[in-house]
Every structure is written in structure tokens, then in C-alpha cells.
Amino acid sequence: MSRPTIADVAAEAGVSKTTVSHALTGQGRVKEETTRRVLDAAERLGYRPNMMARGLRTARTRLLAIANSVPAVVADGAGALSYYMTVAGSAARTALRSGYATILIPPDAAPGIFSDIAIDGAIILDPQTADPFLAALRKRHVPFVTIGREPGALGAGWCVDSDMIDATTRLLDHFALGGSCRPALILTEEQRSYSTDARLAYERWVAQRGLPPVVVTAHEKRAEKGGHAAMSRLLAAHPQVNAVFVPLDPFATGALHALAEAGRRVPQDMQVATLDGVRAQFSVPALTAVSDDMEAFARCAVELLLEQLADPAATPRGVTMQSRIVVRDTTLAAAATG
Amino acid sequence: MSRPTIADVAAEAGVSKTTVSHALTGQGRVKEETTRRVLDAAERLGYRPNMMARGLRTARTRLLAIANSVPAVVADGAGALSYYMTVAGSAARTALRSGYATILIPPDAAPGIFSDIAIDGAIILDPQTADPFLAALRKRHVPFVTIGREPGALGAGWCVDSDMIDATTRLLDHFALGGSCRPALILTEEQRSYSTDARLAYERWVAQRGLPPVVVTAHEKRAEKGGHAAMSRLLAAHPQVNAVFVPLDPFATGALHALAEAGRRVPQDMQVATLDGVRAQFSVPALTAVSDDMEAFARCAVELLLEQLADPAATPRGVTMQSRIVVRDTTLAAAATG
DNA sequence: AGCGTTTGCCAAATCGTTTTGGCTGGAATG
DNA sequence: CATTCCAGCCAAAACGATTTGGCAAACGCT
User: According to the model, what pLDDT value does residue B80 have?
Assistant: First the structure.
């Protein structure tokens, strides 16, 4: 026989389809003993509700989507977006516990994708200003949670975020531990909340010390090349700079190459730090980095999304997480302690 | 108004629902001009077919799943399974082109998952002997394609695979380029096709040269520790060995540590190679590796799966891909050429 | 003209759930 | 005793697509 339906269970248990549905979903009023009989029958037949039928009736798919707004900077292929995997996997696991499956939106997919797939909600990584993915979701009235805030958004949205202002400040303090410090910042042209926050904290920090702000940018798609070029320009224009925060990790490794070519020693002549990931970990020298627990981000994002699905009228809630600074080879305090 | 249905389009175009359905899906007979009118109406209303309704009727979800049979060997957290992301992302992209969305099965999920989600097909990475995921899929009659063969399976199944016998042979030849060579093999206890193939090729290679086979194994879950322990045992028991193929990359980095502790120079005293990935690339010294185009694997797997979905009665087809050997710091030919 | 075939369209059935509205019979209330 | 209420169950109506079977009109052939 093909897959048993609710009608088969009803026949087996000697009740109506309505009662089976109620017994299984906990709706309506069903005598305890009847419920047990239904559950038994369902078990015996190996009954599984048909998701399509259920979805049709309830207008819910029990599917979430996860997408990365950051394009796959395929500088050297593998692992460029490995943190995306970490997040996606963790989100999928968390969602599954609540009975939701997670659709993986491939890197670099067009935002139009969201009008073709049927989902109850979405998680978007690192949205940028006026993010096209978020626009598409809003248009379709699909609830979403962002990891990282949408910079320049009007009201606060559902999001989970790291405290990048605090982290940047602590990082600059860490730079300064190595002695007198003239820090610079290498950012992406694209505005994502981590970069705007880093800029804010940086400008505040240098202003307090009466230092001139030095910020160089490149388009994120240029990846390693962009970081290399930015660092070269920086060295030429601001020779006094002796520490640099380069959040985007392909930029950071590109910057390391530029420094090597220019004959600058790291960290003696130039301290370098980035956001954590496989690149930072495995690069030689290993990069000091601002590190976030991406798995926790993902878990939290799913929880917020489910909260929102349960009550679409709830007021948006954000969660902020503390980052750690992982000291490796590219900053002076490392040499001092290690 | 809420989302338009096929009935709205029918009204707008002045035809029946049947005709709309036929015009949109290309079924049945519809006059060219009528089709155009329907398409126009659908466009004007922004009509999107309801996936749940369609799925209910056709018993197809247009969802695929991708899962990794290899547990997340979370030796040092991030990036341990970054190749899984590469594959999953590439598969998702390919599937999307044919109108399928891809569900990400989180690492370490229980095989029982497949009785709770509604999918048309699945892609399973690196199945092991008597793989529980494949068992679950077979039980539910869900078509699947494996990346890597299921070792010890009776008939041939739908799969895409690398020619690991050839690659291993070439790798051993590469080892031998550095002079007289006594190679060993460090494998996982778990049998996946790449490991059984590597063993086969290795045993053949040493037999041809009248050398004794040296194979050491560890449980894959032990990750770096396992590789470390295996290498230590190898050094103690077989001091004459001067080259080792360690397919599982966490094992390989673990082995490198053991070698460093034992004061053996790499590659002078011991050549080392592994399967490619971020670890191999970024490890210091960088590991010579057998490298596969995982994105191509994924594309191919999706194509095979769609082929199978189009004709479930088709005889299973396998595709074999050629691997490259990427020479880095841990083999002697590298020193010779670089 | 008469007959069979093809073309173009449609009404109704169908997929497997949930939900609505109603029906029973016994307990509680007056 | 009559009335109201409620627990416990059910038949039928959704949900929005595809598919089946059929009906006219147009066409081709003798």
C-alpha cells in the first residue's frame, strides 16, 4: 500500500478524520482514551502527515530560508564563505528541533529568488544599506531576522548582532598596548553594520586622542586584490600608520601580502587585525581577530524568527552579543605575552 | 488583495482555470493567442503558483535535500566541514536553475530526519558501508545520488565519484619521484569509498614493488588527535617509512604535529599528502593534496538526480571524475621544482 | 452531405489536510 | 420536569493547484 493518509488512520482507529486530526495536533476536544487509540493506530500504520496538504490548508510551509547578502568573494575558491556554512548548519539544526527545515540560498543568488520559493521566514546574513534581499522579503511580507543590522534602516528590526563598537574599541586599546599607536582602518565600500560600527568606534577613539582618522576603502568583490591595493595606498599616503584593522578577512590577507612586498614587518612595523574565520586562523602569520560565536548567532536568529512567526504582531526585538578578541601573531601584545 | 490564485488569472484572462493551468505548464492544447493572453494576465496580477497546492496534487515538492554522512569532526571548530558548504552551495545553485530548492541537512543530524521532511530526492556526501542515511532513504523510496560510492553496496547506484585508485597511484608515484620511497597509509576505521579505494591502490602499488604494506587506522571522530596518535604509532613501529598518505585532512594536520614533536623534518624525513581543503591549503607547511573540484561534483550530482527524477526506471548511472594532485610544501618534488 | 478526427476549451474530480458548524446525549441548573 | 450547557464526536467545506473526461466547432475525407 502507498503512504497511509489520515483517512486510513481514522478507519484503523474507528473514528472520523476530524478526530484524528484533532488528536494528533492537540486541537479541539478529544477524550484521552480516544487520543490514545488514534496515536496507536497512527503508529501502527507508520502514518506521517503530508506536508503539502497541511501546508495548503494552513498556508504554512514549515520551511525557513537562509541567505548571505555578502557575495562569495571567491578570491581563492574554497572556504571563502565557510562561516556561512557554520551559520547555516547551526541554523538548520536549531530550526529542525522546532520542526522547520532550512532551505539554503546559494551564495550570489538573485534576490528575486524569494518570489519563487515558498517559505515561512528567512535569515539574512550581513545585510547592507538598502539591502535587495530584505526589500524582496518585505515586498512578499515574509518575516525575517538579520544577522548584523541593516545600516540606515528606519526602525529597529528583528536582528542578532555583535557589539562591534565595543569590540573595535577594545581592539584599538589592544593595539595601543604595544606602545604609541597610529591606527588606520581598511573598510569595504559596501556598508554593512559591522563596518559602519567599526568606523564609528574608530573615529571616536582617534578623536579622543587628537589623532587624524585614516580610513581607506575598496569594493568587497575585489577581495584579496582590494585589500592589497588598499594597503599599498595606505602605506604610500600615511607612512606614520603602524596598526590597521581590516575587518573583511580576504582584505586582511591581501594586506599582509602588500606589507610583505613593501618589506614591512608584522607586527613590529605594522599591527594587523581582522574578523575571525578560517583565513585568520590558518593564515601565516596567524591574524589577531575579533571573534564571534557564529553558531550562537544562528541559534539566536532562529529563535527570534520563531518568536516572530508565533506572533507576527510582536514588536521587533534585537539581541546583541559580545565578541572576543583572539590574539595571534599579527599584534604586538602577542609577542609580549607569547 | 491577498496573493492571486489561478482562479483570479482565469477571470482576468477570460478563460477557465484548466486553460490557465495548461497555458502555464505547457500541458494540453491551447491556442497560441490564448496562451499569450493568459501569460499577460498572470504577469499583470503578479501570479505565482502556490507550491503547496501544486505539490499536493502532483505529489512532488520540488525540494531536494543535501546531507553529509561524515560527522562534523569539530577538532578546532570553524571550517572543519567547509567543503560541505562548497558542495551544498553549488548544488543549491544548480538545483535552483531547474526550479528545485535545496534543504540543508545539518551536520550530525539523525538519519530519521528523512521520514519527517518532504523531499523529491537527496544528495548524500561520502556514504560509508551500510550507510544509515541511505538506508533511511531507501526505506522511504526517495531517489538519491551519492558523492563517493557506498562501499560494499550490491549493485551500482547513482553516484559521482573521483577516481581515487588512479589518484592514489599517481600520488605514490609522485612520492617516489623524491627518491627511494617507503610509503604508508593512515586511514579512518570508517569505510568510505575514497578510503577503501586508496587502500586498494596502495596495496597494489607496494605489492608490485615487493614492499610490505603499512596501514594504520583511527576513528574519524578523533580528528586531529586520531591523526596524531596514528602517526606516533607508525613512527614507533615502522621507522623505515618515509612517506605517508593521510586522506582525512584533520588526521593529516594531526600527523604533522606528531612529526614535529618527534623531530622529523617534512618533507626530507617524511613526505605527507592528504585530500585537499582549507586545512591542506592553509596549514603550515602547506600540504600536498589530491584535489577534486567539489563544485563540479555537486553540479553533476544534481544533474544525475534530476535525470533520475525524470525517469525513475532508468538504470543507475555513475560519473567518475579525475582528481588533480596539487603539489605544496610537504613532498620532495615540490622542493625540487619550487 | 455524411462521417471521423482533431482542435480548443471547460466543469468537475482529485490530492490530504485543517477548520467550521452542527449534532448527540448526559450533567448541571432552575 | 424542562431547560441549558458542555464534552465528544462527525460530515462537509475549505485550501489552490492538476488531471480527467467530455463537449462543441472546425476540418478532412469519401
Answer: 58
Express each pLDDT in A159-202 by its tens digit. Answer: 999 999 999 999 999 999 978 799 999 999 999 999 999 999 99
Q: Starting from the edge strand earliest in sequence, which strands make up the sheet with A271-275, in order?
A: A215-218, A183-188, A243-245, A271-275, A288-291, A324-326
Please report, as a single letter, which amino acid is at residue A227: G
Buried b / exposed e over A318-333, threshold 16 CB at 10 Å, is eeeeebebebbbbbbb
Residue entry with cell 535535500: B65
CATH topology of domain A6-49: 434 Repressor (Amino-terminal Domain) (1.10.260)
CB contact under 8 A, B52 and A63: no
Contact A89, A105 (CB under 8 A): no
Between CA A318 and CA A36 the distance in angstroms is 42
Query: Where residue B78 falls among pLDDT bands split at 50, 70, 90?
Result: very low
Same fold, A63-162+294-322 and A164-292+325-337: yes
Which residue bears the cell 607612512? A239
Crossing angle of the two packed helices B164-177 and B193-208, in degrees rounded to 10? 50
- How many other CB atoms are there within 10 angstroms of residue B200's CB atom? 14
Q: Which of residues 18-77 of A touch strand C (CB under 7 A)?
A: 18, 21-22, 24-25, 27-28, 47-50, 53-54, 56-58
Q: State whether residue A53 sits within 8 Å of chain B by CB.
A: yes
Give the model's pLDDT for residue A156: 81
CATH code matching the domain that covers A164-292+325-337, chosen among 3.40.47.40, 3.30.830.10, 3.40.50.2300, 2.50.20.10: 3.40.50.2300
B233 vs B279, higher pLDDT: B233
Is A324 at the interface with chain B, CB within 8 A?
A: no
- For B85, the closest of A82, A117, A277 (CB atoms) is A82
- Over the stretch A28-65, which tens digit does the pLDDT of each residue have? 889 999 999 999 999 999 999 999 999 999 999 999 99
Choose from A103, A125, A140 for mutation: most chain B CBs within 10 A.
A103
Q: Please report the pLDDT score of residue B1 as a whole number.
A: 62
Query: Where exactly are the structural domains of chain B?
Result: 6-49, 63-162+293-323, 164-292+325-337
Q: What is the mean pLDDT of chain B?
A: 92
User: For B253, which residue in chain A has the nearest alpha carbon?
Assistant: A282
What residues of A are in contact with residue B107 (Cβ under 8 Å)?
89, 93
Is the predicted pLDDT of residue B86 greater than 90, yes or no?
Answer: no
Q: Does A89 sit within 8 Å of B104, measured CB to CB?
A: yes
What's the rounded Cα separation, in Å, for the pair A214 and A232?
Answer: 14
Start-end of H helices in A269-331: 278-282, 294-310
Q: What is the pLDDT of residues B12-35, one digit of tens each?
A: 999 999 999 999 999 888 999 999
Q: Note whether B99 contacts A: Cβ–Cβ < 8 A.
A: yes
Whether A76 has a pLDDT exceeding 60, the answer reads no
A66 vs B: CB within 8 A:
yes
Q: Quick: pLDDT tens for B253-283.
A: 999 999 999 999 999 999 999 999 888 887 8
CB distance B277–A78 less than 8 Å? yes
pLDDT confidence tier of residue A337, bands split at 50, 70 and 90 = very low
Residue B54 beta carbon within 7 A of nucleic strand C: no
Select from 3.40.250.10, 3.40.50.1000, 3.40.50.2300, 3.40.50.970 the CATH code of B63-162+293-323. Answer: 3.40.50.2300
Residue B154 has pLDDT above 80, yes or no: no
Q: Which among A84, A90, A118 has CB closest to B51?
A: A118
The reply to whether A129 Cβ lies less than 7 angstroms from strand C is no
Domain A63-162+294-322 superfamily per CATH: Response regulator (3.40.50.2300)
* In chain A, residues 287-306 whose CB comes closer than 8 Å to chain B: 294
Residue B208, C-beta contacts closer than 8 angstroms, at least 6 positions apart: none
**If you average pLDDT over residues B205-217, what whole number do you get?**
97
B146 to chain A, minimum CA–CA distance in Å? Answer: 19
